[in-house]
Amino acid sequence: MRIDAISIFPEFFSVLDLSLIGKARESGLIAFKAHNLRDWTNDVHKTVDDTPYGGGAGMVMMPEVWGKAIDSVAAGSKPVIIFTTPAGELFTQQIAQELSTKEHLVFACGRYEGIDQRVVEHFGKDFEVRELSIGDYVLNGGEVASVAMIEAIVRLLPGVVGNAESLEEESFSEGQLEYPSYTKPQSWRGLEVPETLLSGHHAEIAKWRNEQSRLRTQKNRPDLLK
Ligand code: ADE
C-alpha cells in the first residue's frame, strides 16, 4: 500500500517511523511519504491561506495550492483522497477495514478553518474522496487525526501485526468492546486474577470473556448495543 500525507507540518508524521508501522515501512509492506504543502506555493511568503468569503473568524486554505499538491501526489495513480476535518464522517473500525483494501491513500490535512470546499468537490469528480473526523472534538489540524487513521488502517494489512487473532478479538471488530486482560503475577496489591481465567476450561473462559465484553460495553459505550 502507498500512503501520502500533505500538510504544512510534515514533521508531525515522523512518529510513523516507530514501532509496527515503522517496521511495515522498512519491510516494504507500505510506502509512506509526508509532503510539505508550501512546496506548491509560488510567492515568497509561501502563503497557503486567506480570509473567508462571507466573513467570519479564521483563515481558509486556498484551493490553488491544494489543487497543485494533490495533482502532483496523485499523478499516474487512482488514490482515495481523505480530507481530515471535524466536519467529516466519523472514522470507525469499519472504515479502517475498507480503506485497508485500497492501493493508494492520500491524506489532505486541513488547518485553520479548513480547506476551500471546491477542492473536495473538484477531486470528487475523478477520485473517491472522503471527509473524515476522528471524533467529536476539534484539533488544531488534521495531522494527528491522519496519524491515528493511518495507524488504524496499516495495522490491518496482512503481516503488520504478528498475531492475526489479536485483530479478530479486539474492540469493535464484533460490535462490542474487548474483555479485560490479566497477566502475571496472579496476585497484585491484594487484587486477584479472576478464577475462571486460571481454570483452563476454554469454554468457560470464552463464556466469561463474552459476558465481560457485554458488561463493559454496557457501562462504557451503551450506544454500541443499540
Ligand atoms: N481536524 C481538526 N479536528 C479534527 C478531527 N476531530 N478529526 C479530523 N480532523 C480534524
Structural features:
single chain; 5-stranded parallel sheet; two-stranded antiparallel sheet; 7 helices; 9 strands; 19% strand; elongated; binds adenine
Helix content: 25-40%
Strand order of the largest sheet: 2-1-6-5-7
Major beta-sheet overview: 5 strands, parallel
Total number of β-strand segments? 9
Could you say which structural class the secondary elements and strand pairing correspond to? alpha/beta
Report the principal-axis shape. Answer: elongated
Small-molecule components bound: adenine
Distance between the termini: 35 Å
The sequence of SSEs as H and E is: EHEEEHEHEHEHHEEH
Number of helices: 7
Strand content: 15-25%
What does this structure look like?
The chain has seven helices and nine strands, in the order βαβββαβαβαβααββα. The protein is elongated, with a radius of gyration of 21 Å. It has helices spanning 19-26, 63-74, 93-99, 117-124, 143-154, 164-168, 202-220; strands at residues 2-7, 31-36, 49-50, 60-61, 80-90, 104-109, 128-133, 187-188, 191-192. The longest helix is centred in the C-terminal third of the chain and has 19 residues, at 202-220. The protein is an alpha/beta fold. The two termini are 35 Å apart. Bound molecules: adenine. Adenine (ADE) is lined by residues 84-86, 133-135, 137-139, 141-142, 145.
